[in-house]
Write a structure and sequence with these properties.
alpha+beta, six-stranded mixed beta sheet, Aminopeptidase
Length: 480
């Protein structure tokens, strides 16, 4: 197996088994059954709640039976994205893992290290009868990536622990004690079509691809290109046009890495269209030569001309709205240096039988700032006549650097690694804040190994970091 030469074979073996099971958000039945069966095989009590969250109870090691329990938490689902050439079917195909000894990644798809590695670490600890630890309660939630469904609907009565270690972080050496909240803005408009004078138009397809994309919380500060914004920038400069097709983005919490727009222009504007594209292409490639070096922009003249196209005024309004939609960090935290406070990600656009649609995802550490940013985005859409609704709001996790769990974990981290951990907050959304609101008195932290380019086909885990995190978790649980 690919992990034969790695140190923590038991844990990597668990990760391999998890990776064979389809577990896109909303399709967690397979992984749920696997976890329940695995618990039974190891003599551990386990159950689910009505939402489908999985609870596994691990008895304390000898002499620790009277200690207060600790909850280890992660989520079962993963973000499923693949390359344009991949034929992978996320409803049935296993993730094909590739390991070079230093990193673990997937072939042509996202890896699911977010958050499969949390499951692997927690189960490796639970199934190792040689370890010292208090009673453990393993909690694996559903549909975290698409709305934090499991956390919001958690049956808190099934958890007796009042200390929780979330294993959904992506940077080793950091203890998170807070996270951003979020809300989504969806704008729609009915598609209104017109007949096309097919002899007097030219049909083009604009494609933006090759971008790094990434997590709209974890990578939003890195200045990577947003494929939708790039396409809108090009189209904003074009002569009058009418849309015939449009798609961009895959997930609400993913920075779009690809966007395709097909459009008609007057035949007399053909040379102008090509010239504008060439000039803007050069500008964009220069701007992103370091932050997103794989950016690929193509403009293809299509032989086939459709009989109908979206009305020109509506086409221009839609593209103008996309052009004006804010993307990226909107404010930096005043309390935590280098941390984004508020951001917006223009995540998804589409044109189909239901009409035009665009979805933005706003995050902030401050609820009022989150709402104000969302209102700003919505105002852009409303000004162009689109119907707007808000969805998926979730609270921020207010930082608590005075918590006993934070202080003890930081102290033990320094003792174990001979260096200090960074105690801070994160712009990405974590389930801790929601779980804390469901279970009063819960003291939470979030830690994890180095995980890069999540929610993209470049997602990968650092092997040594994962193994160090597992070693520290064993030490931490023995000392807490």
């Amino acid at each position: 197996m690919w992990y034969d030469n790695l140190n923590e074979k038991a844990m990597w073996g668990i990760f391999e088994e998890i990776s064979r099971i389809p577990r896109e958000s909303g399709n967690e039945e397979g992984i749920r059954k696997h976890l329940l069966n695995r618990a039974a095989e190891h003599g551990l009590s386990a159950c689910t709640d009505k939402t489908g969250n999985v609870f596994i109870y691990v008895p304390a090691s000898k002499g620790r039976e009277k200690d207060d329990p600790i909850c280890l938490q992660g989520h079962m689902d993963m973000v499923c994205v693949k390359t344009a050439e991949s034929t992978h079917d996320f409803t049935r195909d296993p993730i094909e893992i590739v390991c070079d000894g230093k990193t673990v990644r997937a072939k042509d798809t996202s890896l699911g290290g977010d958050n499969g590695i949390a499951i692997a670490i927690a189960l490796a600890i639970a199934e190792d009868g040689t370890l010292e630890h208090p009673p453990l309660e393993l909690l694996f939630t559903v549909s975290e990536e698409t709305g934090l469904t499991g956390a919001f609907n958690l049956d808190g009565k099934k958890i007796s622990a009042r200390r929780l270690i979330n294993l959904d972080s992506e940077e080793e050496g950091i203890i998170y004690t807070g996270c951003a909240g979020g809300i989504e803005i969806e704008a729609r408009a009915k598609a209104k079509y017109k007949d096309v004078d097919r002899n007097n138009v030219r049909h083009f397809r604009l494609e933006v691809s090759g971008l790094l994309g990434g997590h709209s919380g974890g990578e939003i500060h890195k200045g990577r290109a947003n494929a939708i914004k790039v396409a809108a920038r090009i189209m904003h400069r074009m002569p009058d046009f009418s849309l015939t097709a449009l798609s961009g983005g895959t997930r609400r919490n993913v920075i779009p890495s690809a966007c395709t727009i097909s459009f008609l222009i007057d035949k007399d504007d053909e040379d102008t269209c090509i010239s504008i594209f060439d000039q803007t292409k050069q500008e964009l490639e220069n701007e992103y030569r370091k932050k997103d070096p794989g950016i690929t922009l193509t403009l293809t003249k299509l032989d086939e001309v459709p009989q109908q196209a979206l009305k020109g005024k509506l086409s221009l309004s839609f593209m103008e709205a996309l052009y004006l939609t804010p993307h990226g960090p909107q404010a930096m935290s005043a309390d935590f240096e280098g941390i984004v406070e508020t951001s917006n990600n223009l995540a998804i656009v589409s044109l189909d039988e239901d009409g035009l649609r665009m979805i933005s995802s706003t995050r902030s550490l401050i609820e009022s700032a989150r709402n104000e940013c969302a209102y700003t985005v919505a105002a852009v859409y409303e000004d162009f006549g689109f119907n707007v609704r808000y969805d998926g709001a979730y609270p921020s996790w207010e930082p608590d650097i005075s918590s006993a769990l934070v202080k003890k974990t930081a102290s033990l981290y320094k003792a174990f690694f001979r260096k200090k951990a960074v105690v801070t907050t994160i712009h990405a959304g974590l389930e801790c804040g929601i779980i804390n609101s469901v279970i009063p008195g819960m003291d939470s932290i979030s830690i994890g190994p180095n995980l890069f380019d999540v929610h993209s086909v470049n997602e990968h885990l650092e092997v040594d970091s994962v193994e160090r995190t597992l070693s520290f978790m064993k030490y931490l649980l023995a000392k807490l």
